[in-house]
Amino acid sequence: MTDTLPAIRPIGIEEIEAARKRIAQTITRTPLLKLERGDARPSIYVKLENLQPINSFKLRGAANAIASLPDRHRGQGVWTISAGNAGQGVAFAARAAGVPCTVVTIETAPETKVERMRVLGATLVKAPFDACWEALESREFPGVKGTFVHPFDDDDFIAGNASIGLEIAEDLPGVEVVIAALGGGGLLTGVASAVKARLPNVRVLGAEPETAAPGAMSFSQGRASTFEGWQATFVDGAGGKSVFPRMWERIKDVVDGCMVVTLDETKRAMKTLAEKSRVIVEGAGALPLAAALSGKVQADGPIVAVISGGNIDLATFCELIASV
């Protein structure tokens, strides 16, 4: 099936602007808030994508991808693969379009995300992580029919995600560094494509957990790489076992590198955001802030951390932030 896929190409500013207009009535233009840290420098701003209707940035990409499908493809119903946030995005957009949606979901996905997908009307098919990861590459899964909406390797999905970058560039034109989590790569590629189109000198970095950091390894080796020591953790929405070769082709020309943060740094970032801004963020969403707070980012001007989502069970959240 991969032989029939379109060639990898840059995501242009015109299609990003078109995506923004297309999804304007579906998504929320989220705030960009300065994190109060006294006199600490550089200043850090957080882009609160956890305030989207599904509490995740994935609604942007999903809404654009579903809206961009030809009628005949939407009419077949849609399906995707997800640990929870992409599934919610596709289910939300599919429900609005009046088409059925199936989500092949990783069996270790948090029950909070599973229940939200179910409430949005998705038919759920649970599968092991490895089976889901393989299906992301093959774009097929036994017994599941309909039009596949890839949750990251899709031009329309990325263009929708890229609207985040447009908003950052408009709201903080003096930004020096933008950091976004790296999972599949659709968020990071989209944000970088838009930010670099508007502000070419801004550095864009990925952030990964120490237990799943194929992006940092790929930048180190100069090629799409596999992370042999992968472990499942509370950071369920980012950090894969590998960077897909197609996604590496997208990432390498617009992203400046990838940072690795510890699980404790991630928990502390979750706690900091709760204490300073009264914001609840999931593990993947806290990775960029953890990187920004680590002191390892070389910057004199402002840093923006994209808070990609806040879908986490409250009891789990409390347990995690109480442990640091």
Explained architecture:
The protein is an alpha/beta fold and 324 residues long. It has two domains: 12-56 and 155-322, Rossmann fold; 59-148, Rossmann fold (3-Layer(aba) Sandwich). Helix content is 43%, strand content 15%. The protein has 13 helices and ten strands. The protein has helices at 13-23, 58-68, 71-74, 85-97, 111-119, 129-138, 155-171, 186-198, 214-221, 245-251, 263-277, 283-293, 314-322, and strands spanning 32-34, 44-48, 78-82, 101-106, 123-127, 147-148, 177-181, 203-209, 257-261, 303-307. The protein has a six-stranded mixed beta sheet with strand order 1-2-10-7-8-9, sandwiched between helices. α1 packs across α7, α2 runs parallel beside α4 (85-97) and α11 packs across α13.
Note the main attributes of this structure:
2 domains; alpha/beta; Rossmann fold; globular; 10 strands; 43% helix; four-stranded parallel β-sheet; six-stranded mixed β-sheet; 324 residues; 13 helices
